[in-house]
Amino acid sequence: MKDYIKHNEWKVIEEGFDPELNRISESIFSIGNGKMGQRANFEEKYSGDSLQGSYIAAIYYPDKTKVGWWKNGYPEYFAKVINSTNWIGINITIEGEELDLAKATVLSFRRELDMQKGLLSRHFIARLKSGKQVEVQSKRFLSIDDPEIGAVRYSVKAMNFSGEVNVTPYLDGDVINEDSNYGEKFWEEIEKTISGDEGYLTIETLKTKFHLCTGMKFNVSKTGSGQVKKINNSVKEKYIEGSVNCNVKQGEEIRVEKIVALVSSLNYNTGKLKSQAKKAIARASSMGFDKLLNRHQKKWAKKWETSDIRIEGDLAAQQGIRFNIFQLNQTYTGDDDRLNIGPKGFTGEKYGGVTYWDTESFCLPFYLSTAPQGVSKNFLLYRYKHLQKAIENAQKLGFKDGAALYPMVTVNGEECHNEWEITFEEIHRNGAIAYAVWNYINYTGDIGYLAPYGFEVLLGISRFWSQRVNWSEEKQSFVILGVTGPNEYENNVNNNFHTNNIAIWSLKYMLEVIDYMKEEHPYLYDELVKKWKFKEIEETGRWKEIIEKIYFPYDEARQLYLQQDGFLDKELIPASELAENEKPIYQYWSWDRILRSCYIKQADVLQSLFWFENSHSQEMLKRHFDFYEPLTVHESSLSACIHSILAAKIGYYEKAYEFYLRTARLDLDDYNNDSKDGLHITSMGGTWMAIVMGFGGLRVSNERLVFNPFLPDKWDSYSFRVDYKGAHLEVKMEGNKFIIKNRSEKDTPLIIWGAEMTAKANDELVVGNVKL
Ligand code: BGC
To answer: Which of 359, 411, 517, 616 could form a disulfide with 525 if both were Cys (CB 3.0 to 4.6 A apart)?
Structure first.
């Protein structure tokens, strides 16, 4: 764990420059606008250790798979959302000497991310080898108001010298991905032009043929008397620049403003890209940095209005949760159903920037409660649009008749991960996608989504489960063999409780959906039956039989669902007995040892119990929590949040808080020693869930919001915002009082600590709990 980020309500601050921490900071201070993102790399040259990262959503490269032994069914490639044109670059030389913090003495340094405004700034004073000192200030943002635009403001002050300073704003498409499997570069040049202060560079990805045109327009000025000299343009392969010399006197400052537009063939015809980039540059540069920033800030203010969480009495926690919310909001804005959330968002290369079950399971609740309905709907439509690919994906594995297996990892609907134990076996993700349909409808009431989108997706998924089970003569039950559950520290197990449970739940839900379709959309239903060659009686007959005769591993003596067949054969030694220097076990133990151990990577049985808590008594939930949690090593960032929520549900308030702490500052304090690879964006949704669903106890049941809040001892109060069916509520837990401000025109029925009440439009409701 590191502790170098200064605590502050709205800002993330690093003071002093430590090259060892640079990669971590580059991740932490990343900026994004839902369409693209940028690590906190320096504008000026930096020859020290750095991971350059500038990512455009959904622009990916299918990197040829690298495996030992090829197995039929493996995907051909691993998709990567790739590093693209460096748009921030501004090189500086002073009397011919390059400004490079790896070679200079850094006298002071401050990096600051203002989360309220979505603005990254840097200030430093550096002494070059020659003894010349400069003071540099930079600010930059990626506009969420105009998502094709980025802007940089950069200044250099001559502190102890007079002489010639050169500033060179540039665009560089000659970039690499560190995780390239074969050391290849992924981009080729298409076109470049530069004339004076304006230039355009178009590059194309190999294989996928995405075009990206980046335009820049810059302005260089100086304080004091005298002018900057004329711009010298030069170009090289995938690179354009405008170089400007200025004679400065001691104390004078050179200022650069660089406005950038990034447009891609995702949104425009390739033939029109440059003209679109020109339009964007004209639009943005006519406004200038300040006006663009002003609009950007206003949009951020709106986002915070619906998504902020306030914590009083704990500054570190306050900063932590805002950081998580900020990152979620800058990763996904939800207005394009082709986009999704990668586990690292736009902050690093790991996981390839592509979609996992994380989105449905850990991110959806955040967007349901804090963003307009269409934002969450787009997550679902993303999967709907990939249905055909999911059917083909299942076909490759031998399934038929419209069975759909959604990929574990994808960017365009095709599976692009090739560890057999994940690709072939982690099939519970299909259940997560079905559950998300239910979750969305349960929250929003948009049951019409089922006709036809939800219906079609659920049909494909149901058909998959129907073919994936097999009848066991020995058990006289249906079983699901050879799977990996959410606990990836066990592979190829039989009857993983969570997988069997989510399979059965999906089938039951589908039966309800069919009833609804027949009742409410009979004509459409008939069409869909024809389209999908749905043999209703035969297929639903089998589903019902599976539901009735599915096998769950269960231990009568302990009254416990077992994680999988044979789980009790393991040596059950609590994780607390693991030696400190062997943790995390995935770094210190052989894979063989991990697989044979009882240790659970992340919530598995408990993931199911969290989703289906209403089917179980408190005692049953407690019994399972008490058994499984001590065996869990929480080595996935997605683990602690589920444990926190369940702990809160069963009244283990201190534990709920402990687990929350593990998630809240995971990246800010680099808990797992891996923030340098990028941030744990999807787990940030889990952190939000831990406060809102854990501490606040928020659920939606029978078209009502339900709260069962408690206040962690260490906090004075916390408050969060919830959008629900057009009502906007701000709720606060303080002492033993729960205060609901309804900031909308809609009366909203609620259940608080079991009692039914209404939050009247534009009114405040205060509820006390004598038991707390
Ligand atoms: C977790 C998976 C998750 C993936 C991406 C893995 O470590 O075990 O559940 O989908 O990371 O976040």
So the answer is: 517
